[in-house]
Amino acid sequence: MPFYSMLINQVNVATVSGVDLYGRDNVVTTASGVPARVMYGNRLVLGFQGEQLVADATVYLPAGTALEAGDRLAFEGSTLKVLQVVRRQDESGTHHIQALAQTWRTSAS
C-alpha cells in the first residue's frame, strides 16, 4: 500500500506571524485541505528551551508541506500546536513529514 493512500485525514496549516498588543499569537492560514494522518497517543518531546512537553498527537504530512515548530494544525474542530517537526528520508530525499503536536484548543460542541 503506497504511503500517500494512508493519509486519510485533512488538516489546515497555520503559521504564527508574530504577536499582537496583548501577547497573543497572530496566526495566518497558509494551506487548507492538506492530506494528513492524525494519530493520537502521548509522547515525550523536548521543547524550544529544553523543557519536557507531552505531545498527544503525531501527524504525518506530505514531504512538500511547509511546517515548522510553533505552527498550528486545524483538524476536526481541534487546534494542534506543532512541538517538533521531523523530515523522514528515503533514498531519494524527504519522503514525508512527521509532526509531534499538542492539543492547543478545542471548539465547543
Topology, element by element:
Elements: E1 9-19, E2 25-46, E3 52-62, E4 72-75, E5 78-90, E6 93-106
Antiparallel strand pairs: 1-2, 1-4, 2-3, 3-6, 4-5, 5-6
Can you walk through the features of this model?
- The chain has 109 residues and is mostly beta strands.
- It has one domain (3-106): Protein of unknown function DUF3599 (Thrombin, subunit H, Beta Barrel), CATH 2.40.10.370.
- The protein is built from no helices and six strands.
- It has strands at residues 9-19, 25-46, 52-62, 72-75, 78-90, 93-106.
- The protein has a six-stranded antiparallel β-barrel.
- The mean pLDDT is 89.
Which features characterize this protein?
109 residues; Thrombin, subunit H; 69% strand; mainly beta
Q: Assign the CATH superfamily.
A: Protein of unknown function DUF3599
CATH topology: Thrombin, subunit H
**N- and C-termini, Cα separation:** 35 Å
From the alpha carbons, calculate the radius of gyration and give it in angstroms. Answer: 14 Å
Average pLDDT, rounded to a whole number, is: 89
Broad structural category: mainly beta
CATH class: Mainly Beta
**In the residues, how many domains can be counted?**
1
**Biggest sheet architecture:** 6 strands, antiparallel, barrel
Strand-residue proportion: over 45%
The amount of helix comes to: under 10%
Q: How many strand segments? A: 6
Query: What's the shape?
Result: globular
CATH architecture: Beta Barrel
Q: Enumerate how many helices there are, as a single number.
A: 0
Return the string of H and E elements.
EEEEEE
Low-confidence stretches: none
